[in-house]
Amino acid sequence: MSGPYDLVVIGTGPGGYVCAIRASQLGMKVAVVEKRVSHGGTCLNVGCIPSKALLHASELFDEAGHGFAKMGIDVSPKLDLEKMMAFKAEGVKGNVDGIAYLMKKNKIDTYHGLGSIAAPAVVRVTPENGGEATDLETKSIVIATGSDVARLPGIDIDEKQVVSSTGALELQQVPKKLLVVGAGVIGLELGSVWRRLGAEVHVVEYLDRIVPGMDLEVATQFQKILIKQGFTFQLGAKVTGLERNGSLCTVTVEPAAGGEAQKIEADVVLVAIGRVPYTEGLGLEESGVAIDNRRRIVVDNHFQTNVKGIYAIGDVIAGPMLAHKAEDEGVAVAEILAGQSGHVNYGVIPGVIYTAPEVATVGKTEEELKEAGIEYKAGKFPFLANGRAKVNRTTEGFVKVLADANTDRVLGVHMIGPHVGELIAEAAVIMEFGGSAEDLARTCHAHPTLTEAVKEAALAVDKRPIHM
Asked: Strand 232-235 relative to strand 358-363: parallel, antiparallel, unpaired?
C-alpha cells in the first residue's frame, strides 16, 4: 500500500492532469494513474493535438498549391507525407513532455498502469505487462478516464483500411478515396486533412444535416463551403456492411428511412460516429458507483458519485466531450475538495471545428431558443464586408449574435470564417459576465482586424451595422 494521498486521479488527459495540478496548488498530496506511457490522454496523444498539426500542415500545403499564386508567390509544393507525420509527432512529443514536466514541478506522483477502484479509498494500479499490482490509499478519487471511439456493429476497425480517428492520423499514404462515416467534428476535420492532400472524400451521415446540434444556418453554410472544396455528402444514409477486397473496401450504404442499398468502393474508411465513455475495467460495479444507460458515471452538482469520496469529470460524465470542458471540471472538483466553491458554467462552453474556414459556437442556437419559446434578436455580419478578411482573401462565412429581445443579454454567438476558433473567446467572455449585445457593440475593436466582424454583428442586433 502506497500513500496515503489526499487525491488520486485516474487518467491524465486534459481533465485529469489539470485536476491533479490544481489540487497540488491547493496543498494536497496527489498521485495520478495513467495507462499510457505518456500523459495527455487521447487529446494530446491521438486526438486534438496531432489532428491540429495535420490540419495546419495540410492547410498550408493546399494554400501553397492553390492560393499563393494569386498573391504573387509562385511555388509548386511537393508532399513529403513522412516528414509531415514527423512534424506531427514532434508536436505531440513537445506537448506530452510538457505535461510530464508539470507533474514533476507540482510534486505529483505518477503511476503507470491500469487504474481501478479496489475500495472507496483505494486505487489499484495493475501494470499492463501483468506484473504485481500496487494499491494507493487515498482520501478522494477522481475518475478522468475519458472516452473511446464508438464502433459500428459488425464492422471491424483494423486501423489500416478501416480506421478510427487514431488510424486516420497515421496513414502511410494518401488514399485515392476516403469514405467518412459520420458528418460530425472528427470526420470533417480529418476528412479535410486528406482532401487537401489529394484524396477524394465522400461523407455518409445518418441524419439529414451535418454537424448535428450546431446552429442550422452555420451548418448549412459550412456544408456548401465543404462541397465547394471537393467534399461529397450522402445525408440520410447509413452504412450497413463492409467487405475488404484486397486494397479496396466495398461499403454497403442504405437510406436511413429504408430503401435500396448501394455499394461504394474506397481505399480507406474512417468510422467517425462519435465517442463513448471509457468506463470499463474501473471496478465501478464492484464499488457500487452508479452509471446511466449510456455507461456515463452519474455525479451530483459537486462531481461526486453516489459513493462518498469518488468523483468523476470529463467524457465519462454527461455533457459535451470537449477537452476544455474536462479541464474546467478538473479545476472545479479540486477546488471543491479544498473547501472552495468550484463551479462550471455549462451555458458558456465554446465548441470549435478546426477546418478552413473554422466554425465556432457558444451558447444557444436559434433552434434551441425557438424550441424554448425565448424571444430573441439576431445580428449577422459577413466576413465579405470585413476589411482584414478582404485583403487576406478569407471572406467566406459570417458572425451571428443572438440576444434576448427584452434584456439584450447575449444568449449565443455562432461563427464560420477565418480564425473564429480564436474569435469565439470574446463571445464567451461577454456571456460569462452576462453582457449585452450593446456592451459588445460599444467596445472598441482594433482596425483592421477580424474581430471587427464580431462588433458589427453585435451592432446588427440593433439594426445599425456600419459596414453593411
From this structure: unpaired
pLDDT tens sequence across 25-46: 999 999 999 999 999 999 999 9
Catalogue all structural domains in the chain, each as residue range(s) with its CATH number: 2-148+276-337 (3.50.50.60), 162-273 (3.50.50.60), 351-461 (3.30.390.30)
153 DSSP assignment: T
Provide the CB-side half-sphere exposure for 309 (13 A, CA). Answer: 16
For residue 16, give the nearest of 312, 319, 320 by alpha carbon.
Answer: 312
CB atoms within 10 A of CB 270: 27
Instruction: Cell numbers for 94, please give them.
Output: 513537445
Q: From CA 114, how far away is CA 35, in angstroms rounded?
A: 5
Strand ranges across the sheet with 232-235: 162-163, 268-271, 177-181, 200-205, 232-235
Partners of 263 in beta bridges: 252
100 burial level (CB within 10 Å; 0-12, 13-18, 19+): middle
Q: Which three cell numbers stand for residue 235?
A: 445525408
Give the 3-state secondary structure of residue 467: coil
Quick one: pLDDT at residue 147?
98
pLDDT of residue 3: 82
The single-letter DSSP state of residue 231 is: -
Of the residues 66, 302, 414, 447, which is catalytic?
Answer: 447
Residue pair 72/43 in contact (Cβ under 8 Å)? The answer is no
> Which helix or strand (DSSP H or E) is residue 93 part of?
helix 81-105
Grouping H, G, I as helix, E, B as strand and the rest as coil, residue 56 is helix
The low-confidence residues of the chain, meaning pLDDT below 70, are none
The three three-digit cell numbers of residue 327, written as one number: 479541464
Neighbours of 204 (CB within 10 A): 24
Instruction: Tell me the three state secondary structure of residue 315.
Output: helix
Which spans in 402-451 are helix H?
Answer: 420-432, 437-441
**What's the pLDDT score for residue 127?**
94
3-state percent breakdown (helix, strand, coil) of the chain, nearest 5: 35, 25, 40
DSSP 3-state of 361: strand
CA distance 59 to 356: 7
Q: Using alpha carbons, list the distances in angstroms from residue 396 to 84, 232, 388.
A: 27, 19, 12
SS3 at position 411: strand
> Could you give the C-alpha distances from 453 to 24, 220, 351, 435, in angstroms and in order?
41, 20, 19, 18
Do residues 242 and 155 lie in contact, with contact meaning Cβ atoms separated by under 8 Å? yes
Active site residue 112: no
Measuring CA to CA, which residue among 24, 166, 43 is closest to residue 95? Answer: 43
